[in-house]
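[Solved] Which block belongs to which protein?

Original post:
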Amino acid sequence: MLAVPPRVELRLRPLETRRLYLVPIDSSDAHDLWYAVDSSRRELEPWLPWVPFNVDPDASFRYADASALDWDNARACRFGIRDRASRKFLGVVGLESFAHLHQSVELGYWLRSDVTGRGCMTEAAGMLLTWAFRELKAHRVRVAAATDNHASLAVIRRLGFRFEGIAREAERCHGRWLDHAVFALLSSDKRP
């Protein structure tokens, strides 16, 4: 079984990297979430099917509340990524689709467009993977990205995931079908 700690523990003691804090999302993040999505809408929309439905600040409040509830019910753990120095909200990295019996989760993430290309997502996701294997007791982490989303695929490669195949027309996004490259990382795999 996955060992999901209380959300409040990580709100008090967030996961830390050299440049970032990872803090469980709750309603206090809703305004920052809205601004991050709205200011990056053009860059996020081609890859994330939920972006067009995030039409007002209330949508971000609902997402933040749902994220807290999902954590409290051991269904998912989503973290806001914040800059350590400024506390600026940079994006979200999370573990989804918990399969407790199989100790399996799925990695998902996105960043504000004004902070891409700096290695922030590789750093944040790398820390989350370490936490997933050590603390959550995950055995397998799956991740998928559109076959033409080169930035996301580069993050996945840097994290040491192994390619497993192509899921054809796996997702309808922004009026088009996206093929997904599917990858996984096991707790026993070597990581960079």
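(Second protein starts here: sequence line, then its structure tokens.)
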Amino acid sequence: MQSITVHDLHAGRERPLIDVREEHEFAAGHVPGAVNLPMSTLGEHLDQLPAEPFDVICQIGGRSARVAEALAARGHDVTNVEGGTGEWVAAGYAVEA
């Protein structure tokens, strides 16, 4: 599985970012530009995934790692963000709410 750190993400990537946390978690604060597709309903929204390479993030990296593995097995070019939104916030990076 491909992975990057929150520092790599913050440095700038020209890829869509999918946040797989639940809607209430996303609403409380997320990485700017992220799109919310919760893991719990992702199977119903596979048609909304980008056709191009993309990154996935969650709160600490566990859910997004599972999603990345499953989507990579389906042929998607997907990268997990290690440490997730929690590490993004801990690093002092801005969030949108």
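Accepted answer:
You had them paired correctly. Confirming on the second one: The chain has a mean pLDDT of 96.
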